[in-house]
Inverse folding.
């Protein structure tokens, strides 16, 4: 039994409030079709509200005394209400009980993640606006490439997190269907009030087919973790840039004091430990996504294999939400050294500008490209003007036409 339940009861601490909420709605539904007396339903609801309060305060501890959160709820109700508590499980299975708790939990997680992504996007946007036309090197392959701006660099994070915020909303909408009342995957011989229970739990629709509800297990968790993984890719990119640009060889960025640590032996060091851990967090989420994916190759119906998706989901959620919570402060407390950014620009970075200038004068671009490559060391100050270069990049979204208001509108 210990092997089969593993650490379910400890993991269920994350889901317990949602399990209680769904149980309250289920009991209300049973009362509406007269399978539970109104008086008993009222007593059960009051007891569940009390259980939720006791759990939140720490007075009720979900621990190894119980097999899982579901049995803990029923045990509490039976101890408190006797016969009335034994009526709660009519018309449902632990399968749809955990499925509905997971969906409620995942909806809340996606709401949280979306809010965090919007906050990060706004923080990045504020920096982009402050330093909109401050010139800096643009890199490809970690080699100096063309003139760029801080506005373009930080605006990329504003738009990246706007994308992920929208993805959170899309994923939430995709899983926003109530599986409660599908039991073990084949329905029950009772006229359950599934729609009213779904409405009570604020789902937008029913998951109609019971077998489809079972088949969604694992797949929904995978999609939620994949959505969080997208957020963590933006976190990783930001962390990489800040780690790289804070190195003495660049010295473009000084990290805030809360994001660096000292060395145990080298008094001169200020290590970007926090940024490195943020960067590494993406790997944890990617690993969880792979774990869930590997458990999903199953035939129709419920299989206990799906139990292992729960710790993977919860681990990915906790790591992602914590990482996202630190990013606004990381951005806001960083000092940008725009003088050093400008000083890092050299004449070779203006070769593309020179080629485009020649093309504008009628030289075929391929010939202009060759001439620009040959003339890198001889380009004059009119060409090697960082401010003029970035102002001239007026294609939509480029340095001279960042369209930050469009990104801001997406962030609300």
């Amino acid at each position: 039994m210990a092997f089969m339940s593993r650490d379910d009861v400890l993991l269920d601490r994350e889901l317990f409030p949602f399990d209680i909420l769904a149980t309250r709605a289920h009991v209300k539904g049973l009362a509406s079709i007269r399978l539970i007396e109104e008086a008993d339903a009222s007593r059960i609801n009051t007891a569940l509200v009390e259980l939720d309060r006791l759990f939140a305060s720490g007075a009720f501890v979900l621990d190894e005394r119980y097999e899982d959160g579901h049995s803990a709820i029923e045990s509490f109700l039976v101890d408190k209400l006797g016969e009335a508590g034994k009526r709660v499980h009519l018309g449902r299975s632990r399968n749809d009980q955990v499925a509905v708790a997971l969906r409620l939990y995942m909806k809340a997680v996606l709401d949280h993640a979306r809010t965090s992504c919007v906050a990060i996007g706004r923080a990045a946007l504020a920096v982009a606006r402050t330093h909109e036309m401050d010139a800096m090197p643009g890199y490809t392959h970690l080699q100096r490439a063309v003139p760029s701006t801080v506005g373009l660099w930080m605006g990329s994070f504003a738009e990246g997190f706007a994308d992920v915020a929208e993805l959170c909303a899309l994923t939430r909408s995709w899983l926003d269907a109530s599986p409660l009342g599908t039991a073990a995957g084949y329905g029950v011989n009772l006229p359950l009030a599934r729609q009213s229970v779904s409405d009570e739990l604020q789902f937008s629709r029913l998951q109609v087919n019971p077998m489809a509800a079972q088949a969604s297990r694992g797949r929904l968790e995978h999609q939620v973790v994949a959505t969080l993984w997208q957020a963590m890719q933006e976190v990783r990119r930001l962390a990489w840039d800040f780690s790289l640009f804070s190195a003495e060889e660049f010295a473009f960025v000084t990290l805030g004091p809360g994001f660096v640590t000292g060395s145990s032996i080298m008094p001169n060091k200020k290590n970007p430990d926090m940024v490195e851990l943020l960067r590494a967090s993406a790997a944890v989420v990617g690993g969880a996504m792979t774990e869930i994916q590997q458990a999903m190759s199953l035939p129709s119906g419920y299989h206990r294999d799906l139990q292992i998706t729960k710790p993977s989901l919860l681990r990915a959620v906790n790591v992602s939400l914590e990482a996202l919570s630190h990013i606004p402060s990381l951005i806001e407390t960083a000092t940008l050294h725009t003088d050093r950014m400008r000083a890092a620009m050299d004449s070779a970075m203006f070769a593309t500008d020179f080629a485009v200038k020649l093309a504008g004068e009628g030289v075929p671009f391929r010939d202009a490209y060759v001439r620009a490559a040959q003339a890198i060391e001889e380009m004059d100050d009119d060409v090697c003007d960082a401010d003029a270069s970035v102002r001239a990049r007026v294609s939509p979204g480029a340095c001279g036409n960042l369209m930050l208001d469009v990104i801001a509108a997406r962030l609300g």
The chain has 16 helices and six strands.
